[in-house]
Amino acid sequence: MFTSIKDFAAEWTNEAEMTQKIMNALTDESLGQAITDKHRTLGGLAWHLVESVHYMTSLGLAFDAPDNSDAVKKSAAALAGQYERVSRAILQAVETQWTDVKLLETQTIAGQEWNNGGSLRFTLMHQAHHRGQMTVLMRQAGLKLPDLYGPTYDSWVEQGMEPLA
Ligand code: NI
Predict the structure, then answer these.
(1) Which end of the chain is more exposed for a tag (fewer CB within 10 A), N or C?
(2) Does residue 152 form part of some domain?
(3) Tens-place pLDDT, residues 21-80
(4) Is residue 131 part of a domain?
(5) Is the pLDDT of residue 165 over 70?
(6) Which is one Pfam family of this protein (predicted)?
(7) The total number of structural domains that make up the chain
(8) What angle is formed at CA 12 by the lines to CA 154 and CA 122, rounded to 5 degrees?
(9) Any domain includes 164
(10) Separation of 19 CA from ligand 1 center, angstroms?
């Protein structure tokens, strides 16, 4: 859990930058990529990352919802733009509407007690979870992966190094 708004801001900024790199690498053609037709598509996961940031408004934070039109969901550029907006909006909302003391307050979510700092941590980890799923689908769709927590196959090749198999 986070006990400091400053710590959340620093970590969220880094994580949102990584998610933005993923969003920026998507193409319209790649959005339909899925492991099977029973699983979420790459575009569906991208939209889920956009919309789920806004779930935090159910805990009392106020910021604008993303545009949930079909036009957005079918456009890689629009999804990337919506992510950029909502990821900045949540940070601004936390910094201006909550305090460190507020992070210790608990709220009931689906019958469980969560402190607000824990909910922020969950939101951050939830992004990483789906980002990992997206990188698999991006590879399958033939997209070039950006570096996240370390170099990717593509960046090793670009640097003239032998990629780890
Ligand atoms: Ni999810």
Answers:
(1) C
(2) yes
(3) 999 999 999 999 998 888 999 999 999 999 999 999 999 999 999 999 999 999 999 999
(4) yes
(5) no
(6) DinB
(7) 1
(8) 100
(9) no
(10) 14
CA distance 79 to 72: 6
CA 52 / ligand 1 centre spacing (Å): 7
Q: How far is the CA of 129 from the centre of ligand 1 (A)?
A: 8
The rounded distance, in Å, linking the Cα atoms of 41 and 45 is 6
Q: Which domain holds residue 39?
A: 5-158
- 91 versus 160: the higher-pLDDT residue is 91
- Identify the CATH number of the domain in which residue 69 sits: 1.20.120.450
Whether residue 83 contacts residue 19, with contact meaning beta carbons closer than 8 Å, is answered with yes
To which residue do tokens 């469980």 refer?
A: 112
Can you tell me the distance from the alpha carbon of 121 to that of 50, in angstroms, rounded to the nearest whole number?
17
* β-sheet bridge partners, residue 113: 108
- Per the CB < 8 A criterion, the answer to whether 124 and 11 are in contact is yes
